[in-house]
Amino acid sequence: MDLTTVWFLLIAVLFTGYFILEGFDFGVGALLPVLGRDDRERRVMINTIGPVWDGNEVWLITAGGAMFAAFPEWYATLFSGFYLPLLLILLALIIRGVAFEYRHKRPEPTWKRRWDTAITIGSITPAILWGIAFANILRGVPLDADHEYTGGLLDLLHPYALLGGLTTAALFLTHGALFTALKTTGDIRHRATTLATRLGTAAALLTIPFLTWTLTIRTSPLATALAATATLTLLAALAATHARREGWAFTGTATTIALTVATLFAALFPNVLPSTTDPAGTLTTTNAASTPYTLEIMTWVAAIFTPVVLAYQGWTYWVFRRRIGTHHIPTH
Amino acid sequence: MDALDVARWQFGVTTVYHFLFVPLTIGLSVLVAILQTLWHRTGNDRYLTLTKFYGKLFLINFAMGIVTGIVQEFQFGMNWSDYSRFVGDIFGAPLAIEALVAFFLESTFLGLWIFGWDRLPKRIHLATIWAAALGSTFSAYFILAANSWMQNPVGYRINPDTGRAELTDFVAVLTNKVALITFPHTIAGCFLVAGSLIVAVALFHLIRNPHHHDTPTYRFAARFGAWTTLAATAGVLITGDIQGKIMTDVQPMKMAAAEGLYTTETPAAFSVLTIGTLDGSRELYALKIPYLLSFLGTGDPHGTVQGINDLQAQYTAQYGPGSYTPIIPVTYWSFRMMIGFGLAAAAIALWVLWAHRKGRTPTGKWLLRAGLVMPLLPLAANSFGWIFTEMGRQPWIVFGEMLTRDGVSRSVSLTEVLTSFTAFTLVYATLAVIEVRLLIRYAKAGLPDTTHDPTPHDHTDDPDRPLAFAY
């Protein structure tokens, strides 16, 4: 396989990992005011993701770095073209990350309430904006022959992209509710499962039309197969949620997120950012890529370190596998 | 004002701000790891208390370092997309490796350290803080390798068809002589900050409340921090000296600008103070130490150091008409501020050690004041060091290959850059106030009572026991 294809796949894998992992911590953060009825319950929720959210976010940093190294043209065009949405994502991630660390540092309820708001806004904003961004990548954006973005902010906010934003938000909220159900005990666990059923229904009502619409814009036999499987796993996740099988349901949403991202990348290939105006502007795995030498070095580094990273991240989830309830939260 | 100016200001502000937190993260992670190792080896609870106390300050700071770091990575694509296109083949690789090899290690193991006090065996728990510290240090190496390539591009060729820089030798990029010396210099600067913070906090409690039962612990901390600061100062000076020689070799204009040396001199004198014309083309008055600059720049008191005007003429001949001179007052003064602030911190560290001699406990409001100012000095030194190194490279973004003005994003409007600049500055300013207040609050609160805390040693399996650490 061509190294450019390998790197296209690796970047797809990195974003898939990012959306599965940060997807649930976005969901938990966004549902904080809904599922956490008092400070103690909100602390339970935050602590379910406490040891891992930071490591989850590194998947994004790695995906960004890998894009820069393997497809600099893609990185440059995308990040300068999607300027304002990315700015909002960055601001959201900043206040959210600080909020996790700072909310328990002072006892005043006002202090905690403000950081809770920061967590909620900081979680829901990227959950929506990532969907908008990826829908735009798939559909393509106005690019000139130099691969420069020629559109404005409004060119990014068309109905398909907005549906994409709602889809990722609904998927991540469902995923987060199920993670909460999986990691907590008591009242909060029951409420999370009940909410997951409703959110999952909404997610299905958004994801299925979004995937269908995606296939009408750009498709391949593989993309069609992936989208069909994504639909099935989502329905299976819904059934498992209904049956209160939290583990299976969470596996189901994780698989659905993975397959949805995979559908987008499969439909996109071999393009990485199509141009809707000048066809010469379209970025592909070939014209956006680094030299074979750089890709070769990067492949070696990835081959050696990815298994190591997966092993210790997996171990972290094992170490913190226990469910948490309100009685586990220390008073100070 | 155009998008280029704002993009440059944004880069400067976000980078300097980010680098207020990074050195403390790198330095404190290792110092906290050392404290925990001391506890592990001796079983003395004093070290456990200090581990937890400084660990808390470390975490308050760490949160800011990580969130401001994401902006740094995305900023290249957002504001400097033409730069990213030009150097992506080379510059992207260390960034990606930094994330894969360093950030995962740092964030994952820090999560394990924070939440793992009662979940992990003692030895493994100790290993997690060392792994996190190792991750922070690795990340410094890779990002400095990337930056050093901008200072002294190596291991590449320019593709005549695309006009882009292409990697030809990755080992050369990682062993760039600028990177090899910038790395220890920067790390030493990190310990200068971390050591100073430890001193400041300990001194505050010692002088305010000398008869407290925690006094012996604070005495240890103050001396530990002061020795760290002094060792770091030695490291900064030795590496800085070597760095000066390499800089004279690969970026002679930066050395000339650092000194305000307008004409080539053999031997060259070190200027303690130079006052030049406002346009920076001529010196009006200078106080000089003979032979010193030749020695600093070349290792030989009679060596030749090239001057700004001669280099400007040489570059014009080489690269075509234009100004190849950085803003002299900025480089000249930032260079002196870097050295001056760093040495001031070392002087206070010496004073602190003197005040501790023969079992004494320090007193005196002047020492207290100096101690409280102390952490700000290396922070300022670090910031001026970066301002010097980046401004000294101007007008190049990649020395000799790409001008800064050619690296900016063409598709990004002034409004967009202004929006992000304003947004980042406001958010950063707000968070800075919050963080400093929290640091002071927790520093003032003093040593925690760890007698009832679960430690990695008492590993009970009661599933209903409260968490040792919770957000």
UniProtKB/TrEMBL annotation, chain A:
Keywords: Cell membrane, Electron transport, Heme, Iron, Membrane, Metal-binding, Transmembrane, Transmembrane helix, Transport
Keyword Transport attributed: yes
Annotated signal peptide: none
Entry membrane topology: Multi-pass membrane protein
Membrane-spanning ranges: 6-36, 82-99, 119-138, 158-182, 194-216, 222-241, 248-269, 297-320
InterPro entries according to UniProt: Cyt-d_oxidase_su2
Compartments it resides in: Cell membrane
Similarity comment: family membership: Belongs to the cytochrome ubiquinol oxidase subunit 2 family.
Stated name of the protein: Cytochrome d ubiquinol oxidase subunit II
Organism whose genome encodes this protein: Micromonospora cathayae
Organism classification: Bacteria, Bacillati, Actinomycetota, Actinomycetes, Micromonosporales
TrEMBL record, chain B:
InterPro entries: Cyt-d_ubiquinol_oxidase_su_1
Localization per Swiss-Prot or TrEMBL: Cell membrane
The name this protein goes by in its record: Cytochrome ubiquinol oxidase subunit I
Keyword Ubl conjugation: no
Family: Belongs to the cytochrome ubiquinol oxidase subunit 1 family.
This protein's UniProt keywords: Cell membrane, Electron transport, Heme, Iron, Membrane, Metal-binding, Transmembrane, Transmembrane helix, Transport
Topology relative to the membrane: Multi-pass membrane protein
TM ranges: 20-41, 53-71, 91-115, 127-150, 186-208, 220-238, 333-354, 366-388, 408-434
Gene source species: Micromonospora cathayae
Main location: membrane
